[in-house]
Amino acid sequence: MKRFFLTAVLGIVVAVGLAISRAPVDAHHASAPFYDDTKEVEAVGTVERFVFRNPHSFLFINAENDAGEVIEWEVEMGAAVSMRRSGWTPETIRAGDPIRAVGNPSRAEGTFGICCASLTRPDGSPIRP
Hints:
Layout: H1 2-28, E1 41-51, E2 58-64, E3 70-76, H2 80-85, E4 98-105, E5 113-120
Parallel strand pairs: 3-5
Antiparallel strand pairs: 1-2, 1-4, 2-3, 4-5
């Protein structure tokens, strides 16, 4: 009986500990406060630079808007450590590469940010590590 009680208490402590320790991770990775997941935008242009780092990598794309002005889009990506596990390197995407990014737009007025993007070449062929 004593062993059952100790096992039950230990199980509860472990479950609560996991739930508490998981909350900050989930909160950090929520993109909804910053990006509108009900909308989608597209940036087709040329890679300006690819910043492969932690905690988030960024891809900067120069693309023309409807008025013919060049806009720099900032595409927020995953952490370099996670991307590297999937085969990505700092050389996967290079400055000057033609690219198409489709994802959720930034909620900040007047900015050109994209999150959760699908990256392809302008012809639709995939970009793979």
